[in-house]
Amino acid sequence: MNSSWRAEILAIFRKEWRTEVRSLSGLLTALLFSVVTVYAISFAALNTKLQGTVIAGMLWVALLFSAASSLTRTFLAEEENGTADLLRLVARPHAVFWGKALFNIVQCVVTSSLLSILYLGFTSAPVPIPWLFGVSLITGCLSLAGAVTLCGAIAAQATNRSMLAAAISVPLLLPLVALGVSGMRVSLGDGSLSSGGFASVIGLIGYAVATLATGPYIYAAVWKT
Amino acid sequence: MPEGDPRHTIGLCALDQSVYSQLTVEEHLELTADLRGCPARIDELLKKIDLAYARDVVAGHLSTGMRARLKIAMAIQADPAALLLDEPGAGLDEDGRNLVARITSEQSERGCVIVATNDPAERRLANLELELAS
Amino acid sequence: MKTILKALFALVMGVATVWSFKVPDIAYFQAPGFARIFLWHFPCPMLFTFLVITSAWFSIRVFFNPAGLKPETDAIARAEWDLRSVACMELSYLFALLTMATGILFSKVQWGDWWSWDPRQTSFLMVLLIYAAYFAVRLGYSDPSKRTAFSAAYSLLALLPALFLEFIFPYLPPIKLMSLHPTGSILQGKIKGEYAYCMILILILFVIMSIYLYKIRVRTGLIELELENNDAKLDAGRDSAPTGVVRPVSLSE
Fold first, then answer.
1. How far apart are CA B66 and CA A120, in angstroms?
2. Considering only CB atoms, which chain C residues are within 8 Å of B128?
3. Using CA atoms, how far apart are residues A141 and A109, in angstroms rounded to an integer?
């Protein structure tokens, strides 16, 4: 990557970071959503000891809806605030996509880490293979961020943009949830590494690579629309 | 249309163009410079648009006129061959309108300026006029 | 001539329907006597897949027109590619719904439940949801050019996960072990003889029907586009301002 691309991507990332840190609206909303969701699903389990698969499933549902509601904001906010035209004047589409995707990855890692810690705390679930849990979470965040960033870009100019962004990102993330659950359940003691642990991580990495590789090109095609 | 990358060759300042309310004046100019790949020239531009005193003020706290000046600075940052101004005097006081006149005069020596306006006073900025009849 | 062909098609479809009830059972299925829905189920996902890939191809054409077209011609070309993409997508969704419906019937008869959470069933439902979102994208944009661009983008975005769910996920070893869905029935020669011939005939008939429906849909859409363009030209003629006047401005102090 030459220095020009790096500077452009970092400029977008820095812009997103500064905007988020100074307004805290997106991050606080995502964190509040995460905390409330964790409490709700832990409460729904009524102190029952749950199997690894159920814990992983509920955690991933929470991650899915948290990502669909908060990560799409990077593009939606540009259109809502009328700043998208400024970006179109001065930026290149690939740099915009990568900068926002990078920010979403960071945001997703932060909120999902908090969500996981809270959830495992509430459910007192043991984690026999912690490295697999961490790897599933990180690769899952990469995939979530890539797909949801692009969904936000597609929905940004619609009349019902917030709802549309959630409506199109959730179905696309369902295969990701399936992969994430099958990896995470192994880390929570349900199943073995050879029966699904490694394959899931590879699947998650593949999904992340596919969305992050094709995302900039699809975004560039609709850039000037 | 001028040849080359439009990010460098065309500068646009539009009435309905928004700025990032959470970023300061300086950060706006840094952002546009990094994205265009051109020198930021922050001190020079802030002096030109007379916003040096508001360097560290976030755009959300700027007045309409100050925001208009910021948009002009971002438009001329890369020394574009063509400068497009949409109602440049809107929201500006007399000093601001004089600034616009200075900028258009400098720009016309370097390239061209296209001004879209309903304000009869801004006709003096041009040497050719295209009147769109209603 | 067209009437004769249509009548012939209806006749052959009737023959295929009767034949599908008459073919001897195949022992391969758990409940062979009730597995005939397979003959109507089998062509549906194949056509669905072919049509979504074709729709994605037309979506690529939306973005990559030949260079040098005038803006109006470019807009019309994009609208036509979009129309073809939508026609394929609508037809593909019809076949997807038929796949799901016939699959549910098969599931009830063979496995005892309308919905067995079989991995194949579940993954295909995900595909249905992914492509339902395509129509949500189209409804979300009232501006035709934005609708064209963003729905084409979504069509391309959705293709990868859809193909993964159809062709990779069901064949993963742990999934294959868990799934009750028959696999490799044709390639391993488990479907043969009269059963296979009936299945191929129904597939051919479905292909012919798809082509016919696609052509009608595209023809209707092109007429609608032409009417819209004519309306736009009439409106432009009514409301257009006279051309501007260019005159040098006199310099004043």
1. 51
2. 246, 248-249
3. 6
- The neighbours of chain A, by the rule of 3 or more Cβ pairs under 8 Å, are B, C
Backbone angles phi, psi at C28, to 5 degrees: -55, -35
Q: Which residue has the higher pLDDT, C246 or C132?
A: C132
Q: Measured between CB atoms, which of C126, C169, C172 is closest to A171?
A: C126
Q: Quick one: average pLDDT of A142-167?
A: 92
C252 touches chain B (CB under 8 A): yes
- Scanning every residue of chain B, which has its alpha carbon at the shortest distance from the alpha carbon of A4? B37
Mean pLDDT computed over C119-124: 89
Please tell me if residue C51 touches chain A, with a CB cutoff of 8 Å. no
In a domain, C19, yes or no: no
Q: Average pLDDT of C224-231?
A: 86
Range of the domain at C63: 31-180+190-226
- Mutate one of B108, B131, B134 to test the C interface: name it (highest C CB count within 10 A): B131
- Domains annotated for chain B, with CATH where assigned, are 6-125 (3.40.50.300)
CB contact under 8 A, C247 and B131: yes
Chains with ≥3 Cβ pairs under 8 A against B?
A, C
Evaluate if residue A137 carries a pLDDT over 90: yes
Yes or no: say if A136 and A183 are a contact pair by the CB < 8 Å rule.
Answer: yes
pTM: 0.86
Three-class SS of residue B130?
strand
- pLDDT at residue number C253: 44
Per the listing, tokens 């940052």 go with: B77
What's the token pair of residue C75? 């807009």
C-alpha–C-alpha distance, residues A216 and C145, integer Å? 20
How much is the pLDDT for B133? 65
List, for chain B, all residue ranges whose pLDDT scores fall below the cut of 50: none
pLDDT in tens, A58-114: 899 889 988 888 888 899 999 999 999 999 999 999 999 999 999 999 999 998 998
Length of chain C: 253
Question: In this predicted complex, what is the ipTM?
Answer: 0.90
The C-alpha atoms of residue C91 and residue C76 are separated, in whole angstroms, by: 23
CB proximity B132 to C under 8 Å = yes
Pairwise CB contact (< 8 Å): C156 & A196: no
Q: Break chain A into its structural domains and give their ranges.
A: 3-222
Q: Look at chain C and report how many structural domains it folds into.
A: 1
